[in-house]
Amino acid sequence: MIETTNLIIKQFTADDTPFVFELLNTETWKQFIGDRNIQILDDALGYIEKVLAPYYDKYGYGPWLVSLKEKGEPIGLCGLFKRDYLDQPDLGFAFMPQYAGKGLAYESCLAILEYVTKAYNIKKLYATTTAANIRSQGLLERCGFVRNGEITPPEGEPLLLYHLSLQ
């Protein structure tokens, strides 16, 4: 779907179940995003089918799989989420810890922002992160997002709220 210098970004499929299992069970996912109770591969497949895939049908966008172009190895997810408590989609991302600090999350975010600007009539994006997630805050700011206070989702703790105008 999207190709960059180093990455291929595409929709998740059932074939990505082992990677989703691994990603959602990383310490950083559980610390900064939350435990999704993915105990076995069938749980990861259910997460793809019930959480990730419906975005594509309902909105035409969603969280996308990020893989290394050269090896085809999946390394993370990056894409748009539509939260009931936000009036516009938000950019979300998560990468395997061994790929942190290599610029690949930044590369994927920029590619998705460019793609979204061209492919969708979205005027503004949000992004949220925890106050403890300094890396995510830095990445969002590097991508042009501006901190805009805090928001507390119905199911969770307060999050820092960022926005980016796409006009």
Automatic annotation (TrEMBL):
Its EC number is 2.3.-.-. It is an enzyme of class 2 (transferase). One of its GO terms (molecular function) is acyltransferase activity. Pfam families: Acetyltransf_3 (PF13302). SUPFAM superfamilies: Acyl-CoA N-acyltransferases (Nat). The keyword Transferase applies. InterPro entries: Acyl_CoA_acyltransferase, GNAT_dom, N-acetyltransferase. Residues 7-167 form the N-acetyltransferase domain. PANTHER family: GNAT FAMILY, PUTATIVE (AFU_ORTHOLOGUE AFUA_3G00765)-RELATED-RELATED, N-ACETYLTRANSFERASE DOMAIN-CONTAINING PROTEIN. This is GNAT family N-acetyltransferase.
